[in-house]
Amino acid sequence: MTSASSAADERFRRTVHTAACLIIGDEVLGGKTTDTNSAYFAKFCFSLGINLKRIEVIADDEDEIVEAARRMSDRYDFVVTSGGIGPTHDDITYSSMAKAFGLKLKLHQDALARMKKLSRPHPSQPDFSWDKPSPALSAKLRMIELPTDESRGATDQALFVDKNLWVPISVVNGNVFILPGVPRLFTQLLDGLKPILLPRLVDPEGKGIYRILISTPMAESAVAPYLTELALKVEPKGIKVGSYPRWGHARNTVTLVGRDQTYMESLVDEVVEGVHGTRVKVEGEDDQEGDVDLES
Length: 296
Fold this sequence. Notes:
With 296 residues, this protein is an alpha/beta fold. Helix content is 38%, strand content 20%. It contains 10 helices and 12 strands. It has helices at residues 3-13, 26-29, 37-48, 62-75, 93-100, 109-118, 135-142, 183-197, 220-234, 261-274, and strands at 18-24, 51-58, 78-82, 104-107, 145-148, 158-159, 169-172, 176-179, 210-216, 240-244, 252-258, 278-280. The radius of gyration is 23 Å and the shape is elongated. The protein starts with a helix and ends in a 16-residue tail after the last strand.
């Protein structure tokens, strides 16, 4: 095993503190497709207590993918990519990842067996055959030619997390998890990763990060001095204070975010008084018809 392979094995098993998301697709940058996968990933990380540090959207461009994958793999514990693993010429994520980390593309036999079992020919391909070479077969196989480090065990490089899907999660460099861009598949596979991630979290129970919402009728500029003092006070406890204007509504939102739920709860009465507000479970639940819009 090479030193690079050993490092990849270490990255696959290290404690997960930080995460990043790389959205790959010309269709997102061109406005044709609205990205929802990064938002789902953000909620996923928040629920597990993983600090999501970066979300990027890049083109279906080999150089862009290579640069971003190397940088993110080096900086963050858990990297998820979305998009670019279909059967057409512009689906270049697998080949770009192989180039990024000096790997070969290899037909994954377990994925092929699952594909044969679980997928059905499209109605436009009534004569499709798994045993007869054809452009359609080549296109399908392209989706399971995975970046592979032949000096490492295969199990950690292709994860099958849902028995009803043939789609694998290809893992490169130990911490870059390659997912499809189709939202239904992305969410299903990401949820399937949870049991694998839980033992690697700071909190193996996956209790996540807590968020407290406080609704205030005060303008942001009016509560800014108090929130500045509060932020300095709670920062040593790992608590972040946020202030969010709600344009078109009569109330703004102040948030407390952190892991120490007991300490955060002890702050609620003080913050409610400091911003002349009310604790709410859902932003906007105390809106009333006829309220006057706030100024900042």
